[in-house]
Amino acid sequence: TSVEGKIPTEIGSTNLLRKTAVNTENLKLFGKTDTTVSVVEKDRHQVYKLVVSGSNNAGAYFNGNNDYYNLVKDRNYTFSFWVLTNKDKNFNMSSLGHIQAVNTNSDKVGSDSLHQHTTPVYSTNVIKANTWTKVWCTFKATSNSYFKPYFWYLKAGDEIYIYDMMLNEGKVPLSYTPAPEDTISQISSLSSELKQ
Fold it and tell me: What is the dihedral of CA 162, 163, 167, 171, to 10 degrees?
């Protein structure tokens, strides 16, 4: 029916993508090609700013979960974030919405260890320029793996602003929260500072 898929039918989870708070420490977790990534304030939000200087396979990826296998085979996941672009951008596997579910172990499915997931379903095909938009994609893990989001296949002159990256279990994007591991780490850090 026309309502199907629009009403949440499953409960999601907490943020499964670690170290998503926008700050200079987590900035170090970005890999990039022909792109600079910085932390800036934009429209009252602390965001990551990507400025692309190259035109072939340019962009950035986020390593918050590198080798942290927390995707479970045959479960659905949703990756969402807020984005602002200076040009209309396609949102799909060949552009700003490229994702990887990585499994380099012997239990991977098939020979592609970087894409251990079904074809993602995207919230929109095009991200309109100069408008903050929450976008997301859903996919199913085909093996136990770890998640790596890419902001990739971009062109020279592209400026992309991103914040509130969220990976949750289920097919419905949830409101942003930090990963529980990040909150525990912050509490431990504050506790040790108080003891000193």
Answer: -80
Low-confidence ranges of the chain (pLDDT < 70): 1-12, 184-196
Q: How far apart are the first and last CA of the chain?
A: 61
- Could you give the count of Cα atoms lying within 13 Å of 128 in the half-sphere of its Cβ? 3
Give the dihedral sign, CA 4/168/154/163: positive
DSSP type of residue 186: H
* Count, residues in the chain: 196
Q: Taking the model in full, what pTM does it have?
A: 0.88
Q: What is the pLDDT of residue 173?
A: 95
113 alpha-carbon distance from chain centroid:
19
What SS3 class is residue 48? strand
Q: If DSSP codes are grouped into helix, strand and coil, which group holds residue 154?
A: strand
CA distances from 129 to 84, 91, 182 (A): 7, 12, 32
Provide the 8-state DSSP code for 80.
Answer: E
| Tens of pLDDT, residues 115-157 | 999 999 999 999 999 999 999 999 999 999 999 999 999 999 9
Given a contact cutoff of 8 angstroms between Cβ atoms, the answer to whether 52 and 155 are in contact is yes
What is the rounded CA–CA span in Å between residue 124 and residue 19?
26
